[in-house]
Amino acid sequence: MYPNSLTQLTRANPFSAPLFTLQKVEEPSQNSDISYEFGSMKYYALCGFGGILSCGITHTAVVPLDLVKCRLQVDPDKYKSIFKGFSITIKEDGMRGLAKGWAPTFIGYSMQGLCKFGFYEQLFLFMKIENTYLWRTSLYLAASASAEFFADIALAPMEACKVRIQTCPGYASNLRQCAPKMFAEEGIWAFYKGVVPLWMRQIPYTMMKFACFERTVELLYKHVVPKPRAECSKSEQLVVTFVAGYIAGVFCAIVSHPADSVVSVLNKESGSSAIGVLKKLGPKGVWKGLVARIIMIGTLTALQWFIYDSVKVYFRLPRPPPPEMPESLKKKLGLTE
After folding, report:
1. Cα–Cα distance between 330 and 308 in angstroms, integer?
2. One Pfam family for this entry, by name (predicted)?
3. Which of 147, 285, 289, 313 has its CA 20 to 30 A from that of 35?
4. Exposed, middle or buried, 294 (CB in 10 Å: 0-12/13-18/19+)?
5. Which SS3 state, helix, strand or coil, does residue 73 take?
């Protein structure tokens, strides 16, 4: 049997290696199906490119839903529901009005995706493969949280412009008008006053996005998919990726929604503070627009993982299988004959 706790592992192997090392993760040195070695600069550059495509394209595609969601959060008395929000927006601004904020959305979330996916896998480089397996859930959480911290600094200015364009009729119709106007009125702080609430929204979201996705993939291959991943075609593996991504997305939306409501109101109102907005919204107000966000984030997360994994398939980047106990660890614990 495998050890079911770290205590048992320590007893079985008292001379185990320290948690962190500078040793590269073990990868097959000769593999015709891999084009770039794990840990190389080209590998991380392509991971970042995959992040740009997965986040930039998907967030821009759902701008109409995001616009209605933001308006529902900042003015629930007027918009009341998703369908009412779409109806009022089209009536007031026409069909083109649904695309408001597309430019800062594309730029901001492309930058966020570059940092998020590009930084995420770097922490795996500094751990031995045995510890990567044993601590995998903690590693998913730590790597995703640290990556998102920097990703949000890149996202914050464009997120502030997006929300101002979408929720303040007449303020500015595009990014070229909005950014200079915000800077003239409030200075550089206008673009970063929402970064702390953004961290409150995005870091829990990303931790759930990566950890839930990775463990869901693991469980799907273990209990649902009738054959090992190695025997699945690339298209079958991408289907599993999409399903796991959608499941992760639902949980992402729930854990991050209150902070998302605060960010929407904060970036709409000049001179507001996060605590002031939170008091104004109250316990019920922070959950307005949750249904719209579950639909949006569930679809977004599934598509993001699908696109990111497709980039890895196209460039033949290493795509690790669901975690299994490494042979070296099995030998240390005497689990092999």
Report:
1. 32
2. Mito_carr
3. 147
4. middle
5. helix
- Residue 244 · residue 216 · CB < 8 Å: yes
Q: Measured between alpha carbons, how far is 306 from 54 in angstroms, rounded to an integer?
A: 8
Name residue, tokens 């751990």: 127
Q: Name the residue type at position 89.
A: T
Q: Rounded CA gap, 224 and 174, in Å?
A: 47
Backbone dihedral region of 101: left (phi > 0), alpha (psi from -120 to 50 degrees) or beta?
Answer: left
pLDDT in tens, the chain (337 residues): 444 444 443 344 433 333 333 334 444 444 456 677 777 888 888 989 999 999 999 999 989 988 988 888 788 888 888 889 899 999 998 999 899 999 999 999 999 999 998 888 776 666 666 677 778 888 889 989 999 999 999 999 999 999 899 988 889 989 999 999 999 998 998 999 889 888 988 898 899 999 999 999 989 998 999 888 888 888 999 999 999 999 999 999 898 888 888 877 777 766 677 788 888 888 888 888 888 888 888 888 999 999 999 998 888 887 665 667 777 777 777 776 5
Q: Per the structure block, which two tokens stand in for 77?
A: 């008395």
Instruction: Name the amino acid, one letter, at 11.
Output: R
H helices present in 94-135, as ranges: 102-120, 129-134
Amino acid at 3: P
Helix axes 234-268, 195-223, angle to 10 degrees: 160
The upper half-sphere exposure of residue 76, i.e. CA atoms within 13 Å in the direction of its Cβ, equals: 13
Q: Are 178 and 243 in contact (CB under 8 A)?
A: no
Name residue 127's beta-bridge partners: 20
pTM: 0.77
Calpha distance 35→27 (Å, rounded): 12
